[in-house]
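User: Last request for today: this protein with adenosine-5'-triphosphate, please.
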Amino acid sequence: MSKSLEARGVGKVFDGRGEVVALQGVDMHVPGGGFAAIVGPSGCGKSTLLRIFADLLAPSSGTVEIGGLRPEAARRDKSIGFVFQAATLLPWRTIRRNVELPLDVARRSTREQGRADELLRLVGLDGFGDALPHQLSGGMQQRAAIARALILEPEILLLDEPFGALDEITRQRMNLELLRIWGETRTTAVLVTHSIAEAVLMADRVFVMTPRPGTVSTAVDVPLPRPRTLAMMRTAEFFETANRLRDALFGNDATPNSEAQPMEVAL
Ligand SMILES: Nc1ncnc2c1ncn2[C@@H]1O[C@H](COP(=O)(O)OP(=O)(O)OP(=O)(O)O)[C@@H](O)[C@H]1O
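Assistant: Here's the final one, the structure of the complex with adenosine-5'-triphosphate:
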């Protein structure tokens, strides 16, 4: 059973050459096995929030629970998988050895290591286990990063703009692949994205964040059935949901807030 995610009143203040209030009073609930997306203008704290969920950062206030556990305990439990915008593969290790890296770090037995090949098949990299990262395209490297995030069978998968650096066609293909993988693993997924269209295509519920200090202003449910297809992007339900998100982000005049940085609004 995948774990639910619950954030209550989460705040984050960075102390440096002055205080930056990055997050304030963030509330969020993602049911076990659900797929949530987070959208918001650049700098509103999306990555900060995901890092707090993953126990890579401590919140300044509020609480986070993953299946009833604090992030620190969930991370110790190997319940959390994280995919960054860049694949961050080790260039000297083969793709298989990169995918196995979390097993090495966790000192898991070699018996489990056949799992890497299973996962490479799942992410469509069958036959590339012995290749080095530089021999793979950007999309293929990101597939390997997803396999690496899944190898400890996490109950929650956190994805920070995983396909942001890919071209549009590869990105759409990767979105469908990610949905297929999610459908097979049924891990809880939280995706940070700049793209309204991507959020609607992927998620059950989209959380909209305000500019700094970031907080969740609205949650929009996506009424599309599953499995999702690219053809659904041309339906009235899709347009209507995307418009609701755009209104929540920019107001009814759809004029970006002056502090807001680029946000993909095109469908
Ligand atoms: N380590 C840090 N020290 C100081 N300020 C930070 C730190 N990390 C993030 N910030 C600030 O916190 C705010 C939120 O940053 P964050 O990267 O979470 O935003 P984001 O919504 O993910 O942005 P983007 O969409 O551009 O990736 C920004 O103003 C950023 O400058």
